[in-house]
UniProtKB/TrEMBL annotation:
It is an enzyme of class 5 (isomerase). GO terms for molecular function: glucose-6-phosphate isomerase activity. It comes from Rheinheimera soli. It catalyses: alpha-D-glucose 6-phosphate = beta-D-fructose 6-phosphate. Its EC number is 5.3.1.9. InterPro entries: G6P_Isomerase (IPR001672), G6P_Isomerase_C (IPR023096), Phosphoglucose_isomerase_CS (IPR018189), SIS_dom_sf (IPR046348), SIS_PGI_1 (IPR035476), SIS_PGI_2 (IPR035482). Its main location: cytoplasm. This is Glucose-6-phosphate isomerase. It is found in: Cytoplasm.
C-alpha cells in the first residue's frame, strides 16, 4: 500500500498547508460530511486534517487495499495468523447463537453455547449464595488471576459497567508479578469464602502461574487441604493438561480456543468477571453490541464504515503526517481503563517490524497509545496537546446519558470535552492572545511580550465519539469498533496483527537473570546488566 500511486499522492497532499479554521469557514457542510453513525455510536471526524480531496484519496486507498477480501478470509476462518497457523475467529464468540460456526469442518456453536451455559450455571449459584466453600459458607469474593489479554478486558469492562453491578460477589484482579498485588488482594479476604479463577490461555505465563501458586499457598497456610483447594479453584484455559496438573479439576476448567487471541478474548470465558458482575443477560448485550458493530463493519460501504474511517485517519497521521502518538481520552470516569486496554489491543497487534511475509517494514505502524479519563488529563498533559510542536491526534469519547444523579456535573464534563476538541482545532492566534492581554489593562509592550506564550497553534486533530450511554451494548460496540480498526490498519500495513513475538525476548532473558538473582547461576551478562544485578543484590540484602 505504501508504495502505491495513491499513497504517493497522499504524501504530497500532506505537505500542503491546511487550516482547519479556514476549512470550517469555507464549507458549512463540513461537519455534516465528516460524520457517521454505527450501532447508535456517533463519530464526528470533521476536526481532522483532511480536505475533500484528501478524504477521497484515503478512501481510494481503502478500495485498493484488501480490507474486504482479508475480512472475508477472517470470516471464513482462514489461518490469517500465518506465523502461528491460526484462524482469527473471536467474532464467532459474539455471533448469533443460531448461526452455525463451522471451522475446519466442525460446528463450534455447541461448544460456545455449552461454555455460556456453564458460565450461567456458576453465576446463578454465586448470585444465589448456593456455591459453598470448603467450610460450608457462601462465596463472597472472587480473585481473578491473569495478565495481558486475560486481565485487561475483564478489568476494564467491569469498571466501565460498575453501575450495572448485580452481584453479591466482590471481584479482585491480580496481574502483575509484583508481590504487592497478591498480598494486597488477599489481605482482607478469607479463603473459606473466596473463589479463585486462573485465567490463562496458555497456562504457562510466569506472572499468572506465580500469582496462582501464591494464592494456593495462602489457602494451604489457612488450613485448606487439596480437596478444599479443588473446590475453590477454577480456570479459563486452552491448556487443560497444565491446569489439571496445577490441581484444577476438569469440571472447573472453562474452555479457550487457539482461534481466539488473548487480546481479543473478552468475549470468551475470559469475560467471566463481567458476566458475574452483570448477569448473563447483560453480558449477552455486551456480545450483541460487538456483533452489531461486526455487522456494520462487514456490510457498510467504505465511506460510511466507522472502523475503516478510524483506520484511514490513523494511517494518514502516522504515515503521511509523521504523528507517532495517539491519545485516547474518555470523558467518563468509568472508561478510565479503556486506554490501557486499547494500548494492548493496538500496540501488541500492530507494533510490528516486518510484513506478513517477514520483509522489513520501512514505515511506522501502530501509534503509541496513551490517555486517561477527562477532565483529569486537562490538568496534566493537555498542555502538550494544545501548544507543543508535537501533533497528537486524539479520540474523545463521551457517553451522552449517565446513571448518576449529578446531571449538572455531566453537562460540565461534556462542555469540557467539546471545548477541548474546539480549542485543539481552532487554537488562539497572536492577535486574539494580545487582545486578551490588553483587556486585562496591560500595556501594548506587555501584551506583545506575553501574547506568544498564550498562542495555541490550533489545527490539532481529533475525533469525537458520542455514545448514547455507557451500557453493556454500547461498550461492546465500542470495543469491537477499535478491534476492527486495528484489523483494517493491519491490512493497510500488510502485517500480521495477531501474533506478538516481540514480547518473547524479554521473557527469555528474564529466566537466566532470575537464576542469578536467586543465586542459582553466576552473573555473566553485559556490563550494564551485570552491574545492575550486583547493585540490586547489595541493596536487596542490605
Ligand atoms: O504478553 C503476551 C501475552 O501472550 C498476551 O498476548 C496475552 O494476552 C498474555 O500474554 C497472557 O497470556 P495467557 O493468557 O496465555 O496467560
Amino acid at each position: 500500500m505504501m508504495s502505491s500511486a495513491v499513497w504517493a499522492e497522499l504524501k504530497q497532499l500532506a505537505q500542503q498547508p491546511l487550516s482547519l479554521r479556514q476549512e470550517f469557514a469555507a464549507d458549512p457542510k463540513r461537519a455534516e460530511k465528516f460524520q457517521v453513525n454505527a450501532c447508535g455510536i456517533h463519530l464526528d471526524f470533521a476536526k481532522n486534517l483532511i480536505t475533500d480531496s484528501i478524504w477521497q484519496k484515503l478512501l481510494e486507498l481503502a478500495k485498493q487495499s484488501q480490507i474486504q477480501s482479508k475480512m472475508q478470509q477472517m470470516l471464513n476462518g482462514d489461518k490469517i495468523n500465518n506465523t502461528e497457523q491460526r484462524a482469527v475467529w473471536h467474532m464467532a464468540l459474539r455471533a448469533d447463537s443460531k448461526t452455525p460456526l463451522v471451522l475446519d469442518g466442525v460446528d463450534l456453536q455447541p461448544e460456545i453455547q455449552a461454555c455460556h451455559a456453564r458460565m450461567a450455571e456458576l453465576i446463578g449459584q454465586l448470585h444465589q449464595g448456593e456455591y459453598k466453600g470448603y467450610q460450608g459458607d457462601a462465596i463472597t469474593d472472587l480473585i481473578w488471576i491473569g495478565i495481558g489479554g486475560s486481565l485487561l478486558g475483564p478489568q476494564m469492562a467491569c469498571e466501565a459497567l460498575a453501575p450495572f453491578n448485580q452481584s453479591p460477589v466482590r471481584i479482585h484482579f491480580a496481574g502483575n508479578i509484583d508481590g504487592a498485588v497478591v498480598s494486597d488482594v488477599v489481605k482482607n479476604l478469607d479463603p473459606a469464602t473466596t473463589l479463585v479463577f486462573v485465567a490463562s490461555k496458555s497456562f504457562g505465563t510466569e506472572e499468572t502461574k506465580q500469582n496462582a501458586l501464591a494464592v494456593r499457598q495462602w489457602f494451604t497456610d489457612k488450613g485448606a487441604d487439596k480437596a478444599a483447594i479443588a473446590q475453590h479453584f477454577w480456570a479459563t484455559s486452552s491448556n487443560i493438561k497444565a491446569a489439571a496438573e496445577f490441581g484444577i479439576v476438569a469440571e472447573h476448567i472453562l474452555p479457550m480456543w487457539d482461534w481466539v487471541g488473548g487480546r481479543y478474548s473478552l468475549w470468551s470465558a475470559i469475560g467471566f468477571p463481567v458476566a458475574l458482575q452483570l448477569g448473563m443477560q447483560q453480558f449477552q448485550q455486551l456480545l450483541k453490541g460487538a456483533r452489531d458493530m461486526d455487522q456494520h463493519f462487514i456490510h457498510a460501504p467504505l465511506e460510511q464504515n466507522m472502523p475503516v474511517i478510524l483506520a484511514l485517519l490513523g494511517v494518514w497521521y502516522i504515515n503521511a503526517k509523521g504523528c507517532q502518538a495517539q491519545a485516547l481520552l474518555p470523558y467518563s470516569h468509568y472508561l478510565r481503563f479503556l486506554p490501557s486496554y486499547v494500548q494492548q489491543l493496538d500496540m501488541e497487534s500492530n507494533g510490528k517490524g516486518v510484513d506478513v511475509d517477514g520483509k522489513p517494514l520501512t514505515d511506522a505502524t501502530a501509534p503509541v497509545i496513551w490517555g486517561d479519563a477527562g477532565t483529569n488529563g486537562q490538568h496534566a498533559y493537555h498542555q502538550l496537546l494544545h501548544q507543543s510542536v508535537l501533533a497528537v491526534p486524539s479520540d474523545f469519547i463521551l457517553p451522552a446519558k449517565v446513571s448518576h444523579e449529578l446531571k449538572d456535573h455531566h453537562h460540565r464534563l461534556a462542555a469540557h470535552c467539546f471545548a477541548q476538541t474546539q480549542a485543539l482545532m481552532q487554537g488562539k492566534t497572536f492577535d486574539e492572545a494580545k487582545a486578551e492581554v490588553l483587556a486585562t489593562g496591560a500595556s501594548e509592550a506587555e501584551a506583545i511580550a506575553l501574547a506568544p506564550h498564550k498562542v495555541s497553534p490550533g489545527n490539532k486533530p481529533s475525533n469525537t465519539l458520542l455514545l448514547p450511554e455507557l451500557s453493556p451494548y454500547y461498550l461492546g460496540a465500542l470495543i469491537a469498533l477499535y478491534e476492527q480498526k486495528v484489523f483494517c490498519q493491519g491490512v493497510l500495513w500488510n502485517i500480521n496483527s495477531f501474533d506478538q513475538w516481540g514480547v518473547e525476548l524479554g521473557k527469555q532473558l528474564s529466566t537466566p537473570i532470575y537464576q542469578v538473582l536467586s543465586d542459582q547461576q553466576k552473573n555473566s551478562f553485559d556490563a550494564s546488566t551485570q552491574a545492575l544485578i550486583a547493585k540490586f543484590k547489595q541493596l536487596n540484602l542490605g
